[in-house]
Amino acid sequence: HQKELYVNELNKVNKEIDDALKTNGFEKSKFMILKLLTRLRQIAIDPGIIFDNYNYGSSKIDTLIDVVEESISNNHKILIFTSFKSALNIVKERLKEKNISSYVIDGSVKSKDRMDLVNKFNVDDTNVFLIMLKSGGTGLNLTSASVVIHLDLWWNPQAENQATDRVHRIGQEKVVEVIKLITKGTI
Question: Which of 68, 114, 131, 160, CA to CA, is 20 to 30 A from 101?
Fold first, then answer.
């Protein structure tokens, strides 16, 4: 189902972009193109982000949960970064279903509360820290984690590098594994 939806959307997006370029040119179309490409990125994560009535699961989220479970079984704490709050919420619910503990930082979490969550995560047995890439990618010291997972890739790899650097801080004593989940044949 996910692949079928993605391919159908890809065909629509290609046509819309072609039409926009012919009609308005690149300069006037670039924001619309960005919006269409973002839609494809979201469907590649989980079509439920875009389609309200989609209930068929997501191969990317399933893979993420498998990686998280394996990492936990090997005594690792995990940071998961995503660009989309809706994806963060889906992952949070899936973790809850699997009885995997997590903290969340998104744009709604105040600066002081972020530091409290970071301090708790660094000393307690919470398994996963879910973080919006643009909300929590800088200024946090999360050296208790040894696995970093990027659920989706940002347009600028430097933002991902900054996020990954949250665990590569003074005091890090573990080898850090960085995983970028990429769905073959998608944007």
Answer: 160
